[in-house]
Design goal:
The chain contains 6 helices and 10 strands. It has a 6-stranded mixed sheet, sandwiched between helices. The chain has a 4-stranded antiparallel sheet with strand order 5-4-9-8. It is an alpha/beta fold and 298 residues long.
């Protein structure tokens, strides 16, 4: 690099700065009534899987969440848990599936459709849910991709109350990273020259719903969504995506439909008790959690 006189500047020093992604964090809250709650923020679904995460010491978001859940319940049970997925752009699909298992157990979480078939992916590594108490999922218009997989699964199973913006971002596709030196491409490039992100499949919720272009709708909206359409991929969608048949068995679908009216009654009860004015969004989320505890929704 040259200085202002046009000569090489020999005083410049080269430094390396490592930017670390934000990790799963927890905030504990105790209400005046003595109810113990926790807000767990998941900024992205980071993990070991796939390209760029081959270091054996790489952190996993699902492992971090599991550690937080274990710590939170180590001495006594939680009265309510809030999962904060606001601003979460997605990440590794496997991480979202693993997290769903912490609240659902080993159930089908998502259907992934490629050119040939729809594969049903289940949560593995858990025999029972790790947390079974009241659950709130807090989303916004930037909650996308894997975040929508988790939110949609918890909604379909009526396991959580979704709050935040009226719906999430609306990204219903799955991408695969391919190295530029992959033999399939035959580019004769050296290792480490880059990757191509290729859309290979679409994903669907347990009841067969796609979030593509419309997002996952919340039960209770806390925000003014006048600009929500600007956040979604709805203006010029690259492809039209229709819902598919549920990936669950008939008996499971019937059971969910049978309980649907009861769950709607719970949501309406929460709305009726919650104030129409939301001076502080976070305070409102905790108040909703209080309502869920009071009516024993879970």
């Amino acid at each position: 690099m040259e200085n202002e006189n046009g000569k090489a500047d020999k005083n410049l020093k080269r430094t390396t700065q490592v930017f670390e992604d934000k990790k799963v964090t927890t905030m504990k809250v105790e209400t005046r009534a003595g109810k113990k709650m926790a807000l767990v923020s998941i900024p992205s679904f980071y993990g070991r899987g796939g390209l760029g995460a081959e270091n054996s010491e790489e952190k996993s978001s699902s492992e971090d969440l599991r550690a937080e859940l274990d710590k939170l319940q180590e001495k006594e049970p939680l009265d309510a848990l809030i999962l904060d997925l606001r601003g979460n752009p997605g990440g590794y699909l496997e991480e979202a599936i693993a997290m769903a298992g912490f609240f659902l157990g080993p159930k089908p979480v998502v259907g992934v459709k490629d050119r040939k078939e729809i594969r049903t992916l289940k949560a593995e590594g858990v025999s029972d849910p790790i947390y079974t108490g009241p659950l709130i999922v807090w989303v916004d218009g930037e909650t996308a991709s894997a975040g929508e997989v988790l939110a949609a699964a918890l909604k379909d199973y009526q396991r959580a109350v979704l709050v935040g913006s009226s719906s999430t971002f609306g990204k219903g596709s799955v991408q695969k990273l391919i190295r530029l030196n992959d033999p399939f491409l035959d580019l004769k490039l050296e290792s480490g020259t880059g990757v191509i992100k290729l859309t290979t499949s679409l994903f669907f919720s347990p009841l067969g719903h796609s979030p593509a272009n419309r997002g996952v709708r919340t039960h209770i909206s806390l925000e003014n969504d006048s600009n929500a359409s600007e956040k979604k991929e709805t203006s010029k969608p690259a492809m039209k995506v229709e819902d598919v048949s549920p990936i669950l068995g008939e008996s499971e679908v019937e059971e969910l439909h049978k309980n649907e009216s009861d769950f709607k009654t719970i949501i309406e009860s929460i709305k009726a008790q919650d104030s129409n004015e939301h001076p502080a969004e976070m305070a409102s989320v905790f108040e909703i959690a209080n309502q869920v505890i009071r009516i024993k929704a879970f």
